[in-house]
Design goal:
By secondary structure, this protein is mainly α. The protein has three domains: 160 residues; 70 residues, no CATH class; 465 residues, MFS general substrate transporter like domains (Growth Hormone, Chain: A, Up-down Bundle), CATH 1.20.1250. The protein has a four-stranded mixed β-sheet with strand order 3-2-1-4. Strand 2 and strand 3 form a beta hairpin. Helix 5 packs across helix 6 and helix 15 runs antiparallel to helix 16. It is elongated. GO terms for molecular function: carbohydrate:proton symporter activity. It catalyses: myo-inositol(out) + H(+)(out) = myo-inositol(in) + H(+)(in). InterPro entries: MFS_dom, MFS_sugar_transport-like, MFS_Sugar_Transporters, MFS_trans_sf, Sugar/inositol_transpt, Sugar_transporter_CS.
Length: 726
Amino acid sequence: MLYTLADYFAHLCTHPYLNIMKFIGVAAVLGLTSLAAGCTIPADWDRSVGATIRSVAKSRNASQRLMLALFETAWVESHANNLNCGDRDSLGVFQQRPSQGWCSPSSLCLDIKHATNEFIDKAVRVAKSNMTPGQLAQAVQVSAYPARYDAAESKARSIISALGDVQVTLGGSGPNDVTNRHKHKCRIGPGPILIHELKHRFRPGQTGLAVQQGDLPEERGRSACLQHFGLVEPFKMGMFYNVSLAVFAAIGGFLFGYDSGVITNVLENKYFLSYFGNPSEDLIGAVVSTLAGGCFIGAAFAAWLADYIGRKRTLQVGSLIAIIGCLLQCAAVNVGMLIAGRIIAGLAIGVLSMITPLYQVEISHPKWRGFMAGTFQQMLGFGFIVANWVTYGCDKGIHGVAAWRLPLGLQMAPAVILFLGMFIFPFSPRWLVAQGREDEAYSVLEKLHFDGSNREWLDAEFAEICEQIRREKEMKSSSLMDLVNTKPMLKRTLIACGVQAFGQFTGINVINYYGPRMYRALGISDPLLIQSIYGIVGPIWNLFFIIFLVDRVGRKKPLLFGSFMLAACLAVETAINASFPPDSPNPNKTAQGAGVAMFFIATSVFSVSYGPIAWTYVAEIFPMRTRAMGVSAATCTNWAFNVLFGQTSPIGLENSAWKYYLLFVCLNVFSFFMVLLFFPETKGKTLEEMDELFGDQVVAHKLDGTKPQMTMRASSVHDAGTKHDF
């Protein structure tokens, strides 16, 4: 009875000055429907739901009328929220009822993409040319209260507008009103404006211009409309901004590389050795490995910090800790103070080595993600180069304690730059969504990924991020046990920890840390010079790889190549050292050169395999709720093996000489088969699509909806003038 009265008043109040009554009638119906169903409808609409509906509709070339019908229905039925309850068996954003033939199985009603496609499919069958958007919605929904949909038109328009696009329509009020006499006007929102006004309002750098298919009788699409009216394309800044941000964040990698390189050569400096009383091999091992111990703790701590204060602030915390550690090392007056500085610097490097790739992966476009995250390894290598040449220059040109204090002190400069610079860069959009700051997240994502023509893709990406995080929150779990409590998560965790361990199994860090004494073992008279040249080779190859190859060849093939080639290089190195000992009366210069060449080839191979891939791979395979913990666990694994090899390598090289290399030959062979058998390829997938790869998919992936679902013949619709205008 109350439903009938509300609908009666909505029909009765058609006079322009009494339109408010129509909304009162609709509000009454909605309120009573909600109460009758025992399902609370949120007061506001869900942006991610709206973005998904629009993305699917635009991929199907939906007309303006159908777009309005979709959003009128979404608002009336659920306030554009994906409800898991409703009247009787009604579900989803359109409150579709499986008992009436919608959705099979019924859970598909909660899949926004599927529900939208079902709505459009039915609209194709029932549309008539003279229907208003509300009448089309009623024809699809077959509601007992048909007036609700037309009454919601203004709200539907406001939702579409709020989603970010400026609706541009030629001529009159509907998609069929396209005539030559109207070509001098455009419609933006509810009213027409003159062409010169449109030009005035749309300037370079603005985004959000969309064109309805069929609005132009002869020319179609966004670019055609812009050319038709002489408008200016938006400035395509997404990739430039994205790259700038990724490279700046990679200063964390520079600090990592500099610290690794500086200690290698400082330990060989005669003024350093004299100042600290020629420390024993055990003490030198402690100086090296305590950094890695601090890194282990820092990486573990960073997981909690990244989720609590965000990725951006965690980068800043890491840089502040680095400044403190640097001051202690530079001012050290005894080995204890030096080790304390190394531990604190290690905390910083642990935080930065964990958070930098994670932040880079979360801000990156899937098409560029390998390159973006690869800049971490690139800056790491660049830091190693700078450290090598600074220490080499100080060793040759500076006398006294300044020869080692200055290189240690210069670490403060990049740390200060990183801390201050991150104030002007954004938070991770995925972290913002997890905090409920969706509008801010969309704005950041737009700056990062919008290129002036991919609004549909951007909306689909945002919708997928929002729904994935929402579903993960419903699991109400975010503990360390989540890393191992299901088979897919256990597989992720083992692979992530494995790839970081395999990076250490390559033996490259042993070469980096103890290269000079390895060159001396080959009979080289100036090992510091060779080490400085060695440091340049890796970053050159890494840069070539991340620019031209990583996002083409993927992740798995480079890892297989790296394990195989590094095993071969170290096997040859073993043979050279065994056959031509450095203390022989007639050293073989050719053998010495070949031995050095093997180290150079090893760093080249590492730089096109484990160097850039390991950090990227770890950060991209985990879902949002466990990403920080997963990356932290993997990074801790890296540093645990770093500590192990850093502490034992001086002893191994001293006591076993060339036989020590055989350990890494065997470890590389083991890594090869593990990667071959168990590692999946992740190239080109969004972070939200990784769940499908590992077998624990929780949402239908929205980016699939950016591709046309089907091709429809013009004869299958009733409206004239546009192929998909129903």
